[in-house]
């Protein structure tokens, strides 16, 4: 098994990595189950993205397969990955850089002290609880206040945009690792896209003005180049995600994207724009911030 990398070790590793294979990682939907039913979730709307769950033995085989290929990092998605602490425990032993994408309702044990936790938050209490369910905001805050492993992941919508500065200020007061953003994107089935939440041109200008202020703030994972990519760049060819990330559904089948259901031409998800920014612009600020946040 690999030894776990220190924070400094991660930064050095990331900045020195020359080939994309060195930065590649495994993404696994740990389970199809979830303890929330968010209004914008593609998973449970019609069940078309739900899959069976692999046995722990098959998951260990998968982890071993990627460890044998010298893959150092993994991202655990769901459903909700914290419902399966046994899989988190296994992944923590196999991958020196481990990121867990969670809805924050169950606290990840402090035993996994070097895991990076990306916790979904849809704004302040009123906006978050409208989409994620009553009480979910307070649960997130009580679980992760002061936890330096936690990064809050905010999907910007028309609903939370007016309070974006307040959200950033509030998250900073929680003394976690900070905050990151993506933008509500069109999904493949038009009925699932909520037009009331989508951004128009004026909203895009507001996002640009608001987030540009945080270019040099190391607790706000947004840079000028990344922001411009998210707001304006359309993918010119196939998404680069699959060059870096090997995505698996919970039944063990490969899938083309970590967040199926999004229309690629309108995709404003953070991972793909991060890859585009680093590849096309080789933007040092984006690279530096990302390496600090891993
Ligand atoms: S927490 Fe994630 S998987 Fe669960 S319902 Fe919400 S969006 Fe869907
Ligand atoms: S939805 Fe986005 S991240 Fe997924 S394959 Fe399409 S462009 Fe890439």
How is this structure best described in words?
The chain is an alpha/beta fold. The chain has a single domain (7-293), classed as TIM Barrel, CATH 3.20.20. Helix content is 38%, strand content 14%. The chain has helices at 7-16, 20-23, 56-68, 85-94, 125-132, 136-144, 164-173, 201-212, 224-232, 241-244, 270-281, 284-293, and strands at 25-29, 73-77, 97-102, 116-120, 150-156, 178-183, 220-221, 245-248. Strands 7-6-5-4-3-2-1-8 form an 8-stranded parallel β-sheet. Helix 8 (201-212) links the parallel strand 6 and strand 7 (220-221). The longest helix has 13 residues, at 56-68. It is globular. The mean pLDDT is 88. One iron/sulfur cluster is lined by residues 235, 239, 241, 256-257, 259, 262, 264, 267, 269, 272.
Main attributes?
single chain; 294 residues; alpha/beta; TIM Barrel; eight-stranded parallel sheet; globular; binds iron/sulfur cluster
Question: Helices, strands, pairings?
Answer:
Blueprint: H1 7-16, H2 20-23, E1 25-29, H3 56-68, E2 73-77, H4 85-94, E3 97-102, E4 116-120, H5 125-132, H6 136-144, E5 150-156, H7 164-173, E6 178-183, H8 201-212, E7 220-221, H9 224-232, H10 241-244, E8 245-248, H11 270-281, H12 284-293
Parallel strand pairs: 1-2, 1-8, 2-3, 3-4, 4-5, 5-6, 6-7
Helix pairs in contact: 1-12, 3-4, 8-9, 9-11
The structure holds iron/sulfur cluster (SF4) (2 copies).
Oligomer, anyone?
single chain
For the report, how would you describe the main beta sheet?
8 strands, parallel
Name the helix and strand elements from N-terminus to C-terminus, one letter apiece: HHEHEHEEHHEHEHEHHEHH
How large is the count of helical segments?
A: 12
The overall strand count is 8
Shape: globular
């Amino acid at each position: 098994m690999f030894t776990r990398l220190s924070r400094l070790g991660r930064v050095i590793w990331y900045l020195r990595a020359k080939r994309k294979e060195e930065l590649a990682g495994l993404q696994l939907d740990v389970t199809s189950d979830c303890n929330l039913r968010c209004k914008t979730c593609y998973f449970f709307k019609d069940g078309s993205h739900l899959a069976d769950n692999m046995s722990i033995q098959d998951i260990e085989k998968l982890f071993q397969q990627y460890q044998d290929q010298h893959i150092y990092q993994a991202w655990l998605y769901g459903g909700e990955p914290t419902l399966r602490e046994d899989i988190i425990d296994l992944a923590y032993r196999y991958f020196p850089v481990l990121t867990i994408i969670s809805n924050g309702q169950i606290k990840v044990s402090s035993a996994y002290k070097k895991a990076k936790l990306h916790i979904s938050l849809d704004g302040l209490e009123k906006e978050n609880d409208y989409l994620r369910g009553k009480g979910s905001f307070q649960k997130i805050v009580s679980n992760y206040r002061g936890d330096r492993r936690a990064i809050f992941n905010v999907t910007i919508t028309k609903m939370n945009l007016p309070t974006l500065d307040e959200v950033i200020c509030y998250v900073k007061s929680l003394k976690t690792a900070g905050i990151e953003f993506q933008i509500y994107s069109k999904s493949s089935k038009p009925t699932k896209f909520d037009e009331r939440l989508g951004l128009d041109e004026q909203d895009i200008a507001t996002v640009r003005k608001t987030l540009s202020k945080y270019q040099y703030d190391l607790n706000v994972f947004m840079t000028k180049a990344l922001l411009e990519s998210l707001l304006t760049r359309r993918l010119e060819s196939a998404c680069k995600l699959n060059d870096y990330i090997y995505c698996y559904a919970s039944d063990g089948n490969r899938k083309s994207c970590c967040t199926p259901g999004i229309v690629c031409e309108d995709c404003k998800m953070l991972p793909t724009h991060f890859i585009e920014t680093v590849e096309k612009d080789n933007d040092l600020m984006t690279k530096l911030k990302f390496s600090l946040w891993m």
